[in-house]
Every structure is written in structure tokens, then in C-alpha cells.
User: Which sequence fits this backbone?
């Protein structure tokens, strides 16, 4: 207000005011003057850098929902909500976006478990199901190969006559099959 009043009442040029008050750009001063002459309220800017650099704290899903509902119902800024609830600005922002898109299910902590089915898109659901089926198929193939090997060993043991030793050639052939 001081800068604007000096320009209007005393006629001091905008660039000179910007230099005098250490304002980085004369455009900022010009915008303030335009807002003032239009009668628009000039909101005071109060940066709260601590909400951007705040250490994260553990929050439960209920806490996240309460913070988001508080933000939405009171019409406060992300910065104000972050300061009030002692969480970082980034957390509040991401929680609000997830809540708007997926509702309370979007705030479930699914780290290490993938997305819950309620917030997956159809394509993501199909990919997850496909990956699960491939893993199951690989497991069954491995199990099948192990059972075949076991049957082969049992057949060979049954075919041997009691008291007879294995021939050296058959033993070498058997070891070659194992290494494959």
C-alpha cells in the first residue's frame, strides 16, 4: 500500500519505486497499482516456507481423511492446512488430489502391495491379472518338471535288481541329464 500511495500521491515513477523498495520487477508494482485503482483487494502475502521443508510424519488413513475434509470444508489453502496439521504441503496436495479422484480409497497406503483394486483402471487390473497368471503358470511348470524327475528316479530305482551295482556308463548318462 505504501508503494502504491507514493506513486499515486507523489507521482514517483514505478521503476524508481521498485528500486527504492527492493522489488525485483517494476511489473509487480504496476500490477499492484492496477489492482488498487480497480478496487481489488490486495491480499497480503505471507510465505510459510516451513510447510515446504517440513519433515514427514506418519499419518493414519483416518488422519489423512480428516485433513482433506478440513481443507475442503473450510476453504483454506494447502499451506494453511499443512501448518495446522503439521504435515508437509506436498502431502496435503497429493492427498487432496487422490481424494478428489478416488475418494477415501485413494488414501490407503498401498506401498509394496500395488494399487488396490478399487482405484485401478481396467487396463491396470488386466495387467495385474495377466502377471499373476504368468507367475502361476511358471510355478506349475516347475512343479510338473520336478514331479517328472521324481518319477524317473523312482522308475530307475525300481528297475534295479537288488544287490546289483549300477554300471559306470549309466551313472555318467544320468549325471549328464541332471546338468541339462
Assistant:
Amino acid at each position: 500500500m505504501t508503494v502504491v500511495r507514493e506513486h499515486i500521491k507523489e507521482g514517483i515513477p514505478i521503476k524508481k519505486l521498485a528500486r527504492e523498495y527492493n522489488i525485483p520487477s517494476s511489473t509487480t508494482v504496476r500490477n499492484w497499482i492496477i489492482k488498487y485503482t480497480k478496487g481489488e483487494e490486495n491480499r497480503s502475502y505471507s510465505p510459510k516456507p516451513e510447510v515446504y521443508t517440513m519433515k514427514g510424519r506418519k499419518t493414519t488413513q483416518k488422519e489423512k481423511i480428516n485433513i482433506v475434509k478440513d481443507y475442503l470444508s473450510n476453504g483454506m489453502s494447502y499451506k494453511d492446512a499443512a501448518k495446522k496439521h503439521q504435515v508437509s504441503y506436498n502431502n496435503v496436495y497429493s492427498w487432496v488430489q487422490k481424494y478428489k479422484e478416488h475418494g477415501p480409497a485413494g488414501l490407503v497406503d498401498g506401498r509394496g502391495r500395488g494399487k488396490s483394486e478399487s482405484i485401478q483402471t481396467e487396463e491396470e487390473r488386466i495387467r495385474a491379472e495377466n502377471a499373476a497368471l504368468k507367475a502361476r503358470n511358471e510355478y506349475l511348470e516347475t512343479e510338473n518338471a520336478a514331479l517328472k524327475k521324481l518319477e524317473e528316479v523312482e522308475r530307475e530305482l525300481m528297475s534295479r535288481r537288488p544287490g546289483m551295482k549300477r554300471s559306470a556308463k549309466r551313472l555318467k548318462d544320468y549325471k549328464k541329464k541332471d546338468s541339462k
